[in-house]
């Protein structure tokens, strides 16, 4: 039986894998996305990871993964669907039907993009609606786009797109931003960025492709692309009956990654915490692996 199964291969999962391996634990990483590195792959530039100023998110994710691979960490492509405690540990059933057994679980499944839920959003996904400016921005070179949201993702996306698009509308439902003040200042200095504040999108309209974004107050923005950056939803569905979730769906756990359930640890964006960043995810992975190691040694 394995000592640790880690669910997720983002920075939290990979860090947990490195710490587990170095603690001589028998570890397997189960990842939904083949050769994945999590959300970080979508980050154009990560300027706040200590010592790596200006690092591209995709490259940083690859470095994290290489580190785990070089230490001999094994990966399995699969989606964990069901978790059940038994006398010696945990049984994890994958979507394929395969059942894995492990002494401990480190659940680091991260979060997915929240949707606006407005007419046209689903119909035009991939036809002008995108959730990843880093991935799709280049398709809108010289065009007009709207970015929806007021957090760091929306601000970073608007900055990235302003370097390639003709016009960027930054559409936010309030008149204060949740994201970094320094990025707001950089955006204010851009001639092709227009802030559209106290504005709630009501519909995305087009024919074959997106043609405009309509706002609840009746305003219309003529755009070729709509980049939705309104936060994330934690991937806790498979474990909602196993561990305690807070009102937003995050798993209740402190810095140690320990949950109230024996042998079940968490790391990264999935847990209740104040700051969801690469650096805190990496830190979580180290803590959760150390907690799992201590738990195994005590058994
Ligand atoms: P976030 O901080 O949760 O921001 C989501 C934004 O979307 C908020 O401004 C929110 O408005 C808005 N919003 C939510 N639902 C909406 C809806 N239905 N319609 C319109 N607007 C809606 O999410 P995030 O920007 O993805 O960032 C997540 C975490 O990652 C944060 O901790 C962030 O700091 C971090 N991050 C950091 C970096 C970086 O440091 N470079 C880059 C990306 C992300 P309200 O403000 O009104 O609630």
The ordered H/E elements are EHEHEEEEEEHEHEHEEEEEEEH
- The coarse overall form would be elongated
CATH superfamily of the largest domain: FAD/NAD(P)-binding domain
Helix content: 10-25%
The share of residues in extended strands comes to 25-35%
CATH topology (fold) name of the largest domain: FAD/NAD(P)-binding domain
Q: Give the C-level CATH assignment of the largest domain.
A: Alpha Beta
The mean pLDDT is 95
Helical region count? 6
Whole-number count of domains: 2
Structural class: alpha/beta
Q: From the alpha carbons, calculate the radius of gyration and give it in angstroms.
A: 21 Å
Describe the structure.
The chain has 299 residues and is of the alpha/beta class. It has two domains: 2-113 and 232-298, FAD/NAD(P)-binding domain, CATH 3.50.50.60; 129-228, FAD/NAD(P)-binding domain (3-Layer(bba) Sandwich). Helix content is 23%, strand content 27%. The chain contains six helices and 17 strands. Strands 1, 2, 3, 4, 5, 6 and 17 form a seven-stranded mixed beta sheet that branches. Strands 8-15-9-10-11 form a five-stranded parallel beta sheet, covered by helices on one side. Helix 5 links the parallel strand 10 and strand 11. The mean pLDDT is 95. The protein binds NADP nicotinamide-adenine-dinucleotide phosphate.
């Amino acid at each position: 039986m394995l000592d640790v199964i880690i669910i997720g291969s983002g920075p939290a999962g990979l860090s947990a894998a490195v710490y587990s391996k170095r603690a001589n634990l028998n570890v397997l990483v189960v990842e939904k996305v083949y050769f994945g590195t999590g959300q970080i792959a979508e980050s154009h530039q990560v300027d706040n990871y200590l010592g790596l100023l200006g690092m591209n998110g995709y490259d940083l994710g690859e470095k994290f993964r290489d580190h785990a691979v070089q230490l001999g960490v094994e990966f399995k492509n699969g989606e964990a669907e069901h978790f059940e405690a038994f006398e010696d540990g945990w049984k994890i059933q994958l979507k394929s039907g395969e059942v894995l057994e492990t002494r401990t679980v480190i659940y680091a499944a991260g979060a997915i993009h929240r949707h606006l839920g407005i007419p046209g959003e689903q119909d035009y996904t991939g036809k002008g609606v995108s959730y990843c400016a880093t991935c799709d921005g280049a398709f809108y070179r010289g065009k007009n786009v709207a970015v929806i949201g007021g957090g760091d993702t929306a601000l970073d996306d608007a900055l990235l797109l302003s370097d390639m698009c003709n016009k960027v509308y930054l559409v936010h439902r309030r008149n204060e931003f949740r994201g970094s003040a320094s990025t707001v200042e950089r955006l204010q200095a851009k001639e092709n960025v227009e802030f559209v504040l106290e504005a709630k999108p009501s519909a995305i309209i087009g024919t074959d492709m997106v043609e405009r974004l309509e706002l609840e107050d009746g305003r219309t923005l003529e755009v070729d692309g709509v980049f939705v950056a309104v936060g994330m939803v934690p991937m806790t569905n498979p474990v909602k009956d196993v561990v305690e979730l807070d009102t937003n769906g995050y798993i209740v756990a402190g810095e140690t990654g320990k949950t109230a359930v024996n042998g079940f640890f968490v790391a990264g964006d999935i847990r209740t915490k104040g700051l969801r960043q690469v650096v805190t995810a990496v830190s979580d992975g180290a803590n959760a692996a150390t907690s799992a190691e201590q738990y195994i040694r005590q058994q």
